[in-house]
Amino acid sequence: MESMKIAPSILSADFSRLKDEIQAVEAAGADWLHVDVMDGHFVPNITIGPLVVESIRKVTQIPLDVHLMITDPDKYAPEFIKAGADWVSVHPDTCKKPTATLQQIRRQGAKAAIAVNPDVPIENVESYFADSDMILMMTVFPGFGGQAFIAEVLPKIAQARKIIDQRNLPILIEADGGIKADNIDLVVRTGAEVIVSGSGIFKTPDYVDTIRRMRQAVRQT
Ligand code: DX5
Ligand code: ZN
User: Fold this and answer.
1) Could you identify the atom of ligand 1 that is nearest to the CA of residue 203?
2) Which residue in 48, 55, 153, 197 has a CA-CA distance of 20 to 30 Å to 11?
3) pTM > 0.85
4) Which CATH number goes with the domain that contains 60?
5) Mean pLDDT per 10-residue section of the chain, whose length is 221 residues
6) The 3-state secondary structure of the chain, one letter per residue
7) Number of folded domains in the chain?
8) Taking ligand 2, which is a single-atom ion, which protein residues have CB atoms under 5 Å away?
């Protein structure tokens, strides 16, 4: 798919050289930058806050795709948007009223996405589609980089694709977790168009070559 977007997740970057890492993936052809925000409550890990997003915003031009894995997105989403987030994804089980959270994100000028965990049926989140610019299909359980891709999510991606196409909805499908050059074609062929890859890019020696191989794999499908 020509319109496929690659969003390297900085969770797997070398944080002691974050600016260089970001600029290296941007130069290698990354379309967006995926920023995994974890608070040690919703998931056991703690990662990045608005201050870091503000600094990242200064060193790259590409859209910042901020994935909130935190217990209180209503409180913190505005801070991330102020810091420069272009996209904000939320997990519905962290919001009192997910629709209101999505609407608030949009009102503040960012694009809103609803995240769907591997064990959540599409039917449970369909009511949020109207207020979403993107559906974030988790292909691992949130919490850590470097986990194995859960192939059982693929039929759900196909199901989301069908709904979006049939209703002609202006919504992107993003897939996140365990995606590398050797399985990206499967994920894109199934219907995802924004591909998050952390270890699949940052743990490889040559980002230019990795992103080139990812695009090549997708072109051959
Ligand atoms: C998981 C995160 C992912 C993760 C992807 O909680 O949401 O974005 O960083 O990393 P890889 O590609 O290594 O699975
Ligand atoms: Zn993520």
Assistant:
1) 13
2) 153
3) yes
4) 3.20.20.70
5) 89 98 98 98 97 98 98 98 98 98 98 98 98 98 98 98 98 98 98 98 98 95 65
6) CCCCEEEEEHHHCCHHHHHHHHHHHHHCCCCCEEEEEEECCCCCCECCCHHHHHHHHCCCCCCEEEEEECCCHHHHHHHHHHHCCCEEEECHHHCCCHHHHHHHHHHCCCEEEEEECCCCCHHHCHHHHHHCCEEEEECCCCCCCCCCCCHHHHHHHHHHHHHHHHCCCCCEEEEECCCCCCCHHHHHHHCCCEEEECHHHHCCCCHHHHHHHHHHHHHCC
7) 1
8) 36, 67, 176
